[in-house]
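Section 4.2 – Deliverable D4.2 (structural model, holo form)

The reporting period included a commitment to supply a predicted holo structure for the target in complex with adenosine-5'-triphosphate. Inputs used:
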Amino acid sequence: MGKKITVAVPKGGVGKTTTAVNLAAAFAIAEKKTLLIDFDPSGACSVSLGFENEKLKGDIFQVISFIKHIDSVIHHTDLPMLDFIPCSINSAEVEERINRLTRNIHLFENILNQYALEHYDYIIIDCPPYLKGLTTVALAASDSVLIPIRAGQFSITALKKMYSHICLVRENLNKRLVVEGILLTMFEKNTKAWGLTQNAIYSNFGSDVLETIIPKSTTISEAEFYGKPTMLFNIKSPGSVAYLKLANELMNKNGQGS
Ligand code: ATP
Ligand code: MG
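Output (structure tokens):
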């Protein structure tokens, strides 16, 4: 049975999409059949994987609106073990679809459990930088949440909000939701901002912080520009090595280590 991991935190530009795309690619390289679902109407995962909007054959909202079957919106990628479902190819209809989805919070979960779970080892869901609506629907459907965070004054505030929301989701929607881990992203050694952020994160959330740290790396943003996961751009770059290490750490946690 597959594991569903949502990537979320109520803070923009912290590396959620980069983590969702590169972790999914790293699982696929480790020969785990993986499905990446873009759940952010900005559609950034499509850009990171090199899909042009006009060439997409459907999106997750069409599945939820019963316009298309999930099988018909699964896009194959350059990695044989990685499939992808995009978000919002027709922005005019998105609002109505989101409303429909948030009225029936378990619909997404039911569709995944019924039609996708048995085909994949991992399902990774990339969320927008807010908690209500789509992120809550994703959390209601997931086994765990991976929380990327970068250095900065507001990181601890965002983490505290995230944890309160996880408690609410657990109490009201999904008892089995656990924290997969807090992932430090865009890390820069020996900087004051990171020193302060690390101290605060370790003292407040120590046991949940993952061992793997993603360094700040120009290769990661360059690869995105070329529409590739960083491993397909330069497998030896520090960013690729870090995301492969992250996949390994999570597989070991889940008893699927190599
Ligand atoms: P949003 O909340 O807007 O969806 P996000 O949390 O998904 O943002 P990303 O889009 O993944 O954040 O990353 C924000 C920017 O930082 C992107 O331009 C990305 O290329 C860059 N970036 C992410 N991770 C790294 C890294 N480790 N090193 C260098 N640049 C990075
Ligand atoms: Mg994003």
